[in-house]
Amino acid sequence: ASSDPAQDCIFCKIISGELPCYKVFSDENCTAFLDLFPATSGHTLLVPRSHHEVLETMPPEEVSAVFARVPLLGKAIKAAVGAPSYNLLVNNGREAGQVVPHVHIHIIPRKPGDGLIR
Ligand code: 5GP
Ligand code: ZN
């Protein structure tokens, strides 16, 4: 336990290589890896490299840089798992269902009969 929240953050540890992940994309601003408990096949988390708990504390330019990767990454994920569509999801804050306090965008591939309600 440290006073620096990033020190104990599992996504910071994944980004630094201290914890393993199945990486699908990486650039100077962000990295993307498969969700450990996928909602559907190919469920990916797009994660800014710098530690921010919620979007409000992130510089807007960084928010833009991360979201700007969605179309190309989404296209690659769709091709990889043969899904025609995907959902984007950000649980922004504990009351919104955020469990890992490091900003991340869920990219959830969708296809007919995938079992998700909507
Ligand atoms: P949240 O509810 O915070 O938006 O979602 C956190 C997500 O991170 C969950 O979908 C969960 O399955 C995923 N997750 C939690 N711990 C790990 C981990 O150690 N590795 C990976 N790859 N995903 C994780
Ligand atoms: Zn972090």
TrEMBL record:
Residues 10-117 form the HIT domain. Signal peptide: none annotated. A motif (Histidine triad motif) lies at residues 102-106. The active site is at 104 (tele-amp-histidine intermediate). One of its GO terms (molecular function) is adenylylsulfatase activity. The chain holds residues 56 to 173 of 202 of the full protein. GO terms for biological process: purine ribonucleotide metabolic process; sulfur compound metabolic process. It comes from Cyanidioschyzon merolae (strain NIES-3377 / 10D). It comes from the Eukaryota. This is Similar to histidine triad protein.
